[in-house]
Design goal:
Order of helices and strands of chain A: HHHHHH
Radius of gyration of chain B: 22 Å
Structural class of chain B: mainly alpha
Helix content of chain A: over 70%
Order of helices and strands of chain B: HHHHHHHHEEHHHHHHHHHHHHH
Largest sheet of chain A: none
Largest sheet of chain B: 2 strands, antiparallel
Shape of chain A: flat
Strand order of the largest sheet of chain B: 1-2
Radius of gyration of chain A: 24 Å
Structural class of chain A: mainly alpha
Number of strands of chain B: 2
Oligomer: heterodimer
Distance between the termini of chain A: 54 Å
Number of domains of chain B: 1
Number of helices of chain B: 21
Amino acid sequence: MLFEKLLFPIFCLLLVPVYFLGTVNLRNPAQTYLFVKFVAVGMVIVSVFLIFKIIREHRLIPPAERQGFKFSPLKRPLIFLGLMVVYLLFFQTLGFVIVSGIVFTVFMKILGGSWPRSLLISWGLSITVFIIFVRFFYVTLPWGLLKPLEFYLY
Amino acid sequence: MIDVQSLVEGFFLIFTLEGILCLLLGMAWGIVAGAIPGMTGTMATIILLPVTFSFETMNAMIMLTACYVGSVYAGSITAILYNCPGDPSSACTAFDGYPMAKKGLANEAQGLSLSASALGGWASYVVMLLFMKPIADFALRFGAPEMFMLAMFGMAVVASIGSDSIFKGVLMALFGLLLGTLGIAPTGSLRGTFGIPYLMDGIPFVSALIGLFAFTELFDLITREYVMEDDHQGESGSVLAQNKFTVKRVFKGMLQTFSYRATLIRGWLIGTLVGALPAAGSSVASLISYTQSKQYSKNGKEFGTGHPEGVVASESANNASTGGAMMTSFTIGIPGSATTAILLAALMMHGLNPGPRLFNEHMPMVYGLTLCVIIGNIVMLCEGSFFAYLFSLTMKIRTMYLVPIITLFCVIGSYSIGATLYDVIIMICFGVLGVLFKRNGYPSIAIVLGMILGPIADGNLIRTAMTYNGNFSVLFTSPICIFLLLLALCSVVVPLVLARNKTISQLKIDD
């Protein structure tokens, strides 16, 4: 797909003015932008070159051989991404264990897992990993709704 | 060449109960994770990263380094048994390893792979042990202009190696450099933060790394039902029946490695040299060694049909590359691969600054780590045989169960850095970006290197401007700068010329 191929060079091309518009402050010393200017100029040149190169290569492909957009291969990744967004939204409020348990149960169920196995694996995994990392590796993870139980783990 | 006192101190640093346990566990995890197709060595090391946060620096580094070394070898286990490399660096091993397995010689192939990996690794660590001090001492002579040019050389190599199109590599490297400049500039001013407080420290490097190399792979894994495709499952049954695991035959394969001494030495040399180049990594080393051995060996024509020499060529190089990669990482602070970038990130998280000073200030630690990987290779021989046996029993894992497990570790790894949701968001954003890059042939490693080298280049360019009153002619007059500049130009121009020649000869063949 031409659009997908062009996406990153166009993104880079737009990033350069946005980066500068949002950050240039005349009170800053001149050296602040020395290296950034060097990189930005390079990015603009390479992006423009790549855009032309991609378009030229695309035109060389016969229309019959050009790949169109297909949704089916993206179905599973999009479900996963959607669930990850839900995961992020409730991560702090529900807490690591609850949100992981729920989201991964739903994930396994959607992909064809059985209820008992999905529930067992996702909740078992979430609780075990949480206890190991919080109790033994001293990693801070959000407790969320389980905050009252914090006392029992230490 | 070697600081004996530091070497002895390093020896005692690793010989603690915790150190040995970290070595055994790190190696075991590296072998298991590295052997699972879809889980690369980089991913295995990333998953282990949050586990080591609470460890002492030395133990954390032992565990991560052992995992790295183990994972590079382990890709060969499933490459031989199922024609499904656990790690991209073992792709060439499958060319001859799998045909050997189909002939009923899987055990011999496993033995060849184990001993070639261990011997290649050992030889490269000896080089590392001998040359680390001279390289680090030489790097100490580098001033700001030389460090800037070194960073530019690193970027030029990265851009030229990691992609089918050099311009894609260059754009990715520039994008990484720009990301590396976000946050507080060396002058004290803010750049690119848009008033967002989270961005003041720049993009969290570890989150970006986890996103690009672990989370991205999940999108690929999830499109499959099983970790290994159905056709391999079908074949594996017959292969397993022919290749019942026996230690005697594995040992026979190990001894057979010594019949291919020239290939072994070639693989070691190529692996160590390629590994030392920024971002070249074990996959490139293995591929070059395999093609070179095919060209120069008298058995070259039999490569690809199940010849033991093919396995030796690939495996000796990919493990030798780990020594080269670690040598440049610990002496000049430029990672040789994505996994060594994680090792450097781990050092930063433990309060150490990678760069020329790291070696001189923490010499016993670096020597200790080198000794650790030398010993780790002996451990690998034992653990590798054991896990090769286990993997020969079953490899049917459904992705729907594996993906949540890896996701949890990715989330923990990124969240635990700053205990903010922002780190997890960055990880997911980079994961999605990584999918886009992967689908369109953009090398993600260039971004990572850009993020590491960006601040180095930026700070040293500013320092050069201040020291020489804005006169940059020193960049083109210092002998070291000129040498590095020429190397950088060569590394960009040579691949372009080679690609052009290849296209011309292809056109001639087509005509």
